Each structure stands twice: as C-alpha cells, then as structure tokens.
Amino acid sequence: MSLKKIAASAVVLLGVSAAAPAFSETTDIITVRRMTMELAAEIARGAVLACREKGYQSSAVVVDRTGNIQAVMRDTLANRFTILAAEGKANAVILSNVNSGVFRETRADIKEEMNSIDGIMVLGGGVEIRAAGSLVGAVGVSGAPGGDLDEECAMKGLEGPQERLDFAD
C-alpha cells in the first residue's frame, strides 16, 4: 500500500470517528440531554412576549430534540395557523440541525421538497435550543410580518435561560 493511500485512509477514519457518536461494544445505554417542561414554557412565553412588545400577535412552539411538542404559547389575538407554522419551523430546525432561516438560505435547492414533508416549514423563525453545545430542541415563532422578525422573537425568548443552557451539565 502506498504512503498516499495510508494517509488518505487515516484521514477518512479520523473524519468518520469524529462524526460518529462515542459508543463502545459494551454500551447499551446512552445519555441524552433533555429540557424540562418549565424551560420549554419559559422559552415559548419569552418569545411570544418579545413579539407582543413589537406589536405582533404570535405563537411559539417548542419541540424537543425528536420534534415532539413540549410547549405551545399563543398570544390572545394570534390565529391558530400561527401555531401550525411555528411548529413547522421548529421541526425544520430539528431536521436540519440549523436555524430554519439558515436552512432556507443554504438549501434553497430542496426547499420545496422539504416543505412537502408533513410538519416541516422551511421558513425563517425557527431557532435551535442547545444545552452546553448539544441540541435539545427548537423554538419556532410565527405571527410577525416576516421570518426574520419571527426569528428575532425566538432569539429573545432564549435570552433569559441562555446562561443556564450554556453551562448545563
């Protein structure tokens, strides 16, 4: 085997091992970070109140790392469709592992196909929720006049608990 082939194989193996979860043959149980109901509710409420302060009637949906709804908050005059859109935006984050606006911009080539998947909306307004670097869920917001404004509200909802999330053990 040539030195170039050995070096290339080593690079491939290092790349694969860095991307793969750290499992051993004797590990039957893995530990997964999850957010509490209280944290999910705090984020959803903070996002809706942030939109309200700007004059927007919105909804926020927080999903866990698997896309299951954990908290829903709808402002008084927000219609029910804002809940559906907020959930779809949060699910787009879980699907792509990036904020939904980033997903929309970087994968415009598959946006239509992704939007045809039940429960996914590739629109701005979905934001990752990370605890000490691990994806634990996402918050989606809908009701402001534009995905960029929905995203601002979602980010504002994360401000309160952000330090706790950053240093979660």
Count of individual domains: 1
Q: Which outline best applies?
A: globular
> Spatial order of the strands in the main sheet?
2-1-4-3
- N-to-C SSE string, H for helix and E for strand: HHEEHHHEEHH
The CATH class, by name, is Alpha Beta
Largest sheet: 4 strands, antiparallel
- Work out the radius of gyration: 19 Å
Q: How much beta, percentage-wise?
A: 15-25%
Query: How many β-strand runs?
Result: 4
Write the CATH fold name.
Beta-Lactamase
Q: What is the tally of helical segments?
A: 7
**Helical fraction:** 40-55%
Mean of the pLDDT scores?
A: 88
Describe the protein's architecture and organization.
The protein is of the alpha+beta class and 169 residues long. The chain is 48% helix and 16% strand. Mean pLDDT is 88; it is low at 1-21. Strand 1 and strand 2 (69-74) form a beta hairpin. Helix 2 (37-53) packs across helix 6 (147-159). It has seven helices and four strands, in the order H-H-E-E-H-H-H-E-E-H-H. The longest helix is centred in the first third of the chain and has 17 residues, at 3-19. It has a single domain (37-166), classed as Beta-Lactamase, CATH 3.30.450.
